[in-house]
Write a structure and sequence with these properties.
By secondary structure, the protein is an alpha/beta fold. Helices cover 41% and strands 16% of the residues. The protein contains ten helices and seven strands. A seven-stranded mixed β-sheet has the order 1-2-3-4-5-6-7. Strand 3 and strand 4 form a beta hairpin. Helix 1 packs parallel to helix 2 and helix 5 crosses helix 6. It is globular and about 55 Å long. The site of one fe (iii) ion (FE) has 4 residues, from loops.
């Protein structure tokens, strides 16, 4: 069993279609993946169909944009009811805010002489995809301004950049409750990934746990030895489980499918805790 519980398709900022992510995963010998696009479940149908064809198990999921006192937190949510009105409203709000934020970031960059327009950014995204900074990065690569997404983030798109603009995201503690109310299982993505920006204190994770958080994504490439040890101690103290995953984005990032994996017993807990009626798609 090789289980990877965090992947992206071009329904958000991955470069492969949902069916292609599934095909890649099967090709790499994985038995189970979760599709967890940012703030959208629109890739589920195509991924589920492909999973049956490629004899792979699919965990329908999403990576919800949230924040706490302005610090960005990504919340993975597995097996949610994709039609739950409160959750849908929050994701729609975040997606709409990502659109207007994108216009503002592109305006700031274009005024500084950086070769980017909304047309060139949208040319990098599927129609209806959740827009993110990686789409700006891809437009800058296409324009020959940077070599890759990593260079784009390091030079222009990071959180402290003069071109950075925030977007709306619900408070993480409320989001944890919304995921549980939608029958899903909430897991905090890359909780200690401090190279990407600020991370929250253990007290916030305690509050999340009290609100119904199920697990922490400890085995992630943005965590090194000390962060993994700290995370392990925290899950034991708070009665959570630990997951591992690749955060695969296709060609856009170095992350390889299955580079970190999750124990089958943890997937079983996720399935036991889910109450939405949405289940793991098994071939
Ligand atoms: P946004 O959704 O606009 O806040 O952009 C954040 C997304 O960009 C994250 O979900 C990552 O997938 C991606 N990202 C962050 N840092 C990098 C990087 N250095 N290289 C490539 N992608 C990145
Ligand atoms: Zn992403
Ligand atoms: Fe993330
Ligand atoms: Fe992600």
């Amino acid at each position: 069993m090789a289980i990877d519980l965090h992947t992206h398709s071009n329904a958000s900022d991955g470069t492969l279609a949902p069916a292609e992510v599934v095909a890649e995963a099967a090709h790499h010998g994985l038995t189970t993946i979760a599709l967890t696009d940012h703030d959208t479940t629109s890739g589920w149908g195509e991924a589920a169909e492909a999973a049956v064809r490629h004899r792979l198990s699919l965990v329908p999921g999403v990576e919800i944009s949230t924040q706490h006192n302005g610090i960005s937190i990504h919340l993975l949510a597995y097996l949610i009811d994709p039609a739950n009105p409160d959750l849908v409203r929050e994701m729609e709000h975040a997606r709409a805010s990502r659109d207007t934020r994108m216009v503002r970031m592109v305006e700031k960059m274009a005024s500084a002489g950086i070769p980017v327009t909304m047309e060139t950014v949208l040319a990098q995204a599927q129609p209806g995809a959740t827009l993110g900074r990686p789409h700006i990065a891809d437009a800058l690569i296409e324009a020959g301004h940077v070599r890759d997404r990593n260079e784009a983030f390091e030079e222009l798109l990071h959180d402290r950049s003069p071109y950075y603009v925030h977007h709306y995201a619900p408070d993480v503690v409320r989001a944890v409750r919304l995921v549980r109310a939608a029958g899903g299982v909430p897991v905090m993505a890359h909780p200690f990934a401090n190279r990407r920006g600020r991370t929250v204190s253990d007290e916030v994770i305690e509050e999340m746990a009290a609100a119904g958080l199920a697990g922490l994504e400890i085995n992630h490439r943005d965590h090194f030895g000390p962060e993994r040890a700290h995370g392990q101690a925290l899950v034991e103290r708070l009665g959570l489980f630990a997951t591992g995953s690749s955060d695969f984005h296709g060609a856009g990032k170095e992350n390889r499918l299955g580079e970190n994996t999750t124990e089958p017993a943890v997937l079983a807990q996720i399935e036991e805790q889910a109450s939405s009626g949405v289940t793991v798609v098994r071939p």
